[in-house]
Amino acid sequence: MKKIVFAFAALFFFSMTLLTSCLPEKKAFGVKPSGDSPRAASGYGNSGEKSDTRDIQGKDRQTASEDLRQIGKKALLIGIGNYPNLPGKSLKGPQNDVAIIKNEFLIPILGYKPDEIKVLTSPNIKDSADILPTKENIVRVMEDWFLQGDNVKERFFFFAGHGSQTDDLDGDENDGKDEVILPLEAGLEGQKLRRERLIIDDEIREWFEKLDGKKLIAVFDSCHSGTVCRSLGVPVTTSRFVGNTFDETKGRGNRQQRDTREANFADRIPKNHVYFYAAQSSELANEKLFDDTGLHQGFFTKAFVNSAKELLRKEAHQRSASDVSYLDLFVAVNDEMKNKKNYDQTPDIQPVYLEESPDKYKGTDSEALIKPFLSVSREMPAPLPGTETQLPDADQHKINVLLMQEGKKILNFPDLSGSVKYAFLDFEKKEKGYDLYINIRENFVELSNGNGDFLNRFDYSGKTQLVGEIEKRIQHAFLKDLLAKIKSPQAFPMSLSVEYEGKDYDKNDFYCGQKITYLLESRADVYVYVFSVDAAGSELNLYLPSGCQKNNRVSKGESIRILDEECSKDYELKISDKPGEELLKVIASPTPLTIRMPRETGEVISVMTFEEALRNIKDMTAQLKACNVWYEDTRKYMNHKLSDYQEIMGK
After folding, report:
1. Residue 303 CA: distances (Å) to CA of 297, 298, 306, 545, 645
2. What is the mean pLDDT of residues 437-451?
3. Which of 470, 222, 452 is nearest to 339 (CA)?
4. Rounded distance between C-alpha atoms, residue 310 and residue 381, angstroms
5. Known catalytic residue: 162?
6. Which of 319, 380, 530, 621 places its Cα 20 to 30 Å from the Cα of 520?
7. What does the mean pLDDT of the chain come to?
């Protein structure tokens, strides 16, 4: 089977339905003769007709390719949302996807220069593209520009738009179908796509094989659906990628490890190439209007860029910062889509994914995945484009809570009226995702977080105790979510690490009662405030400043420990004695903030009640709104019973 078969398997949605079952009337997809079509005169009419192709920056092909042949990097971005010959099948996200990849990923993160990036997008009503993504233009830019230049050190290819299949004419496909991407002028003839207007996988395979041994990253965000499907519903047979899936039985997006021999054969691609895909071959990939940007975007593109930003942000303030590998980014994207957002699509990557451990990749055809992809700056990082300040209103903020009751129903909505101020309560599973899952059984209750991770359980005797404990857990989850939603566009100027028994502790799992020390090293002059919502209850802990350790000023190049040397003479900092999820929130500001020091309990740290915590968070967000520059970081940890911890750690 050809290499491009494997490279594009995740690109296309395979449907067993007839086209007529998807489309109300065939005539809606008819293509007018070129002479009668106003679209043909605009440069995106019928294939083979003369059109305004808007050549490369107004130059002829040879001159353009000679001018740009020796640049350091090349990126070709194609986003096709408007398909004039396919009425009712236009998309709203691809142009936005291209802009985000260019302005929030390629330029600020991968270091591409604007003249190293070529963009082909379909026009909308208000503007037009420099180069329209017709088949003729895509082929020309690919062959005369993107593939040219022996000294180009890196290439990046991105496609967002419709993908489908058509009949294989040369007999080189086992299933009798060629994968295709649809350029601007794509159209139908009867129930089939007009082949002369498509870009066949054979062509793409030949293009990419010309770059064998040269660095190429390709990203495909297509086959989108939801309100709009980027698959046209053209009849096909079955998926070629049986077995190349995540283990859905666990519901956590963990991929099944495939036989190494199969992986080496089926997923071998040209050397130094890495391909990212929005979805598995049997899945739909979606786009929607996102509230935070006000734009239609592909789920995958948004997760891809946001995950890259977050990984760099976290690594930049680690003492032993390391570059981000392709594997790191893929795992983060999968976690964002499957675990955090609960999307019904699973991203894919080539070379083949084995598992998260980098050691599994050494000496295999997938070794490229553990190579560095994103470089982490060791200097004071600048704000990343596309990030905005987020200061949630504590009076308006709410979380989604699902309450499940097995057997006899004990609680009804009015019983938890005290929690409606902080949560949307659901007894019927109306939503797709929740921040907290509460499973009420006969004598005990189990709690899980939004990712489905088990948090803890508690016993109860009687309805009054049950209501009180549940409301306490809802307040606990509310505080964690409220603090996590506080976001600054400024890159965090500190490294935050944990020390255990005098050594660095780089794990996110702890055991109840574990003695630890936090170490903060700063690259700026700041005042530091460290909050914790542990698994013990609905209170907020203030680690710094505290009654024991009042000095929270850290100068550039200095470090601070919690607890510091003086406090450590008399006190110890321990993980909560309750299993569950703990959130650590660090706020840093060039100027001091006013925090109402709460009562002191436990001799070491200051503890706020739920009401005190809300007042302080409101006061703090009001002060941060008035600051031009401030920083934050959020960490989440899991606390376990000692026996569970030892099992996790393999002890």
Report:
1. 10, 9, 5, 36, 31
2. 88
3. 452
4. 13
5. yes
6. 621
7. 75
Q: Give yes or no: 273 in active site.
A: no
Quick one: which H or E segment has residue 504?
Answer: strand 503-505
Separation between Cα atoms, residue 22 and residue 410, nearest integer Å: 46
Q: How far apart are CA 270 and CA 286, in angstroms?
A: 29
Query: In what side-by-side order are the strands of the sheet with 399-405?
Result: 423-426, 399-405, 436-440, 444-449, 454-459
- The answer to whether the CB of 581 falls within 8 A of the CB of 533 is no
For residues 631 and 492, is the Cβ–Cβ distance under 8 A?
A: yes
Q: Exactly one of 22, 223, 476, 567 is catalytic; which is it?
A: 223
For residue 457, give the amino acid letter.
Answer: R
54-68, 122-136, 417-431: which is most confident: 417-431
Distance from C-alpha of 277 to C-alpha of 415, rounded to nearest angstrom: 47
Cα R_g (the chain), whole angstroms:
27
3-state secondary structure of 360: helix
* Identity of the residue numbered 512: C
Fold (CATH) for 494-648: Immunoglobulin-like (2.60.40)
Which residues in 436-452 are b (16+ Cβ under 10 Å) and which e? bbbbbeeeebebbbbbe
Q: Is 313 exposed, middle or buried (0-12, 13-18, 19+ CB in 10 A)?
A: middle
- Taking the C-alpha atoms of residue 345 and residue 224, their distance in angstroms, rounded to an integer, is 10
Whether 637 contacts 496, CB under 8 Å? no
Alpha carbons within 13 angstroms on the beta-carbon side of residue 58 total 0
**In terms of pTM, does the model score above 0.85?**
no
The domain locations on the chain are 3-374, 399-480, 494-648
Q: What is the CATH number of domain 3-374?
A: 3.40.50.1460
Centre a 10 Å sphere on the Cβ of residue 8 and count the other Cβ atoms it contains.
Answer: 27
- Please state, as a whole number, how many other Cβ atoms lie within 10 Å of the Cβ of residue 169: 12
Q: How far apart are CA 47 and CA 184, in angstroms?
A: 10
Please state which of the ranges 180-184, 285-289, 301-305, 381-385 shows the lowest mean pLDDT.
381-385
Mean pLDDT over residues 112-126, rounded?
A: 81
Count of positions (residues) in the chain: 651
Strand partners for 193: 188
Quote the tokens at residue 469: 């404990």
Structure tokens at 205: 């395979």
Number of H helices, E strands in the chain: 13, 35
**SS3 of the chain: helix, strand, coil, percent, to 5:** 25, 25, 45
Confidence class for position 468, pLDDT limits 50, 70, 90: very high
- Contacts for 432 with CB less than 8 Å, ≥ 6 apart: 342
Residue with tokens 């299933």: 175
The CA angle 266-268-271, to the nearest 5 degrees, is 175
Q: Give the helix/strand (H/E) hosting 19.
A: helix 19-22
3-state secondary structure of 52: coil
**333's tokens:** 């994207």
